[in-house]
Amino acid sequence: MTRLFLGASALALIATPALAHDPEFSEARLSTHVRTMSADWFEGRAPGTAGEDKTVAYLMGAFAAAGLQPGGDLRADGSREWTQDVVLARSTMVDTPLVEMNIGGEDVMLVQNEDVAVRAPINGEAQVELQDVELVFVGYGTHAPERGWSDYKDQDLSGKVLVMLVNDPDFEGGEGDFGGPEMTYYGRWTYKYEEAARRGAAGVLVIHETVPASYPWGVVANGNEQTFDIVREDPKAAHAGLEGWMHSDLAERIFAANGTSLEAVKAAARRKDFQPMPLGTTIDATLLARQEQIAAKNVVGVLPGSERADEYVVFTAHHDHLGMVEDPAEEGDAVYNGALDNATGTAALIEQARAFAEKGGAKRSLVFLAVGAEERGLLGSKYYAANPLYPLSRTVGVINTDSLGVFGPASDFSISGTARLGLLDLMIEEGEALGRTFAPDPRPEAGGFFRSDHFPFAQVGVPAVSYRSGQQLTEGGAERATELARDYVANHYHQASDEWSADWRFDGITSDMLFIHRVATTLANGEDWPNWAEGSEFKAIRDASAAERD
């Protein structure tokens, strides 16, 4: 098997003998970390809240107890803090948004989080006011000239509210100009918002459907009272005043008033000759929000390398979640606890740090980065990638852990999304030694590659993966794993019910951690530099910094 490395031969790496003493990871400690960080006392760990302050304090103590040194922002005396300030713009709704549409001549007052899920405006304005603004359907809202595709057809749609489908044009048919059902970045709602803003749209509403979105309506209807972004010089260039989702039932009503249907317009949107479609519907909206800047926190610990301290292997996991339920009287629970997502990955980060510290570190430096504001758009990792504490050109690779499996060991493993890079080749080889086979992401159409904290690192060229626990469970196999995953997504993902359970199996996570430990040990004690495969959109960025590693 060919590995994609720069520098010395990969064969030398393959010949590295098995570790004489693998660490023993504690199921009890992992369970305690998860149970603690997902307790109600931590208030859902939202950025810029008392819950985040408590989480950061817990992580600083846990990193210190594990044997790490502070690895965050530099102090005036040259020492480091435990944290990196992540400066964010925060928009907070001060009242329920008022949204009304005129559909087929009838005025219809819409219910927030039932008919639409409108975010607090993050375009820098404290008040967004739309009056009789026309809705235009723009297919998938994609402009991809390299694929000979544009849903906009160079029409001037500035000042309109654009309605669009989630995912890619290939999703329904399974093949086409976008490489089949695997989601590209064009399919992500973040891209759709960005492209609409670039075209001067007054607003954008993405039509929600559970299968192409990969999550139910309840997910997009949560957390809209606050919106976060990195601080931008011109936020209007990145965000329209009105951003959010439209329920498919409302979309059906609008299309029916135009003598068509959602299925019919989806079929039209899959063709290159699609033309933007005025919907004969107008929208009035009033959004009021408080605009401010806050500093969320990344928590950073480091084990300096014994021989090549200026080369870095980075472990990441996001410590934040969604905070408090907006109306606990209705929900029956006041806290989005975020136990699986992502107290599990953060617990693994802490205990991985302990294992390496007890071994005395490695030849290269090891950075343990608990990032914040992931649930707000990967903002902690985006901020680090734009403001690295350690040079990206000398970062060997990034291994992210997010929502690890709590239903026992598996005989396979995966990564989020689809990518070809030497880091994955190494993982496949190390997995074989442990009897773990690689299984491609079973749902590449969900866009997992773009939804975890490794992605901002990939965008700046650093080889990065987000590890996923396997699906071939030793007890129940893939069938049981699929059943459990569906139940979690449908009933617990981004819900107040994502809580620690005494029934969870942490032996699966310890198995995952041993696997990751072996991969990281090979990277941290080796001399090679993983790279992206030929044809990867990230390879040119990595290659451009090759001289800094020679």
Q: Which helices and strands occur, and which strands form pairs?
A:
Elements: E1 5-6, H1 10-14, H2 27-37, H3 50-66, E2 69-70, E3 83-93, E4 98-103, E5 106-110, E6 116-118, E7 127-137, E8 143-144, E9 149-150, E10 161-165, H4 170-173, H5 189-198, E11 203-208, H6 210-213, H7 217-220, E12 226-230, E13 242-247, H8 248-257, H9 262-269, E14 277-303, E15 308-318, E16 323-324, H10 328-331, E17 335-336, H11 339-358, E18 364-371, H12 379-386, E19 395-401, E20 412-415, H13 422-433, E21 437-438, H14 455-459, E22 464-469, H15 477-491, H16 507-525, E23 529-530, H17 539-544
Helix pairs in contact: 2-11, 3-11, 11-16, 13-16
Structure overview:
With 550 residues, this protein is of the alpha/beta class. The protein has two domains: 5-14 and 27-81 and 304-469 and 507-548, 3-Layer(aba) Sandwich (Aminopeptidase); 91-291, Glucose Oxidase, domain 1. The protein is 29% helix and 25% strand. The strands form four sheets. It has a 17-stranded mixed beta sheet that branches. Strands 1-23 form a two-stranded antiparallel sheet. It is globular and about 75 Å long. The protein starts with a strand and ends in a 6-residue tail after the last helix. Residues 1-18 have low confidence and may be disordered.
- Could you give the distance between the termini? 25 Å
Number of helices: 17
CATH class of the largest domain: Alpha Beta
Mean pLDDT: 92
Q: Structural class of the helix and strand makeup?
A: alpha/beta
- Show unreliable segments: 1-18
Helix content: 25-40%
Beta strand count: 23
Number of separate structural domains: 2
CATH topology type of the largest domain: Aminopeptidase
The name of the CATH architecture of the largest domain is: 3-Layer(aba) Sandwich
Global geometry: globular
* Strand residues, percent: 15-25%
- What is the CATH homologous superfamily assignment of the largest domain? Zn peptidases
Major sheet details: 17 strands, mixed
Radius of gyration: 23 Å
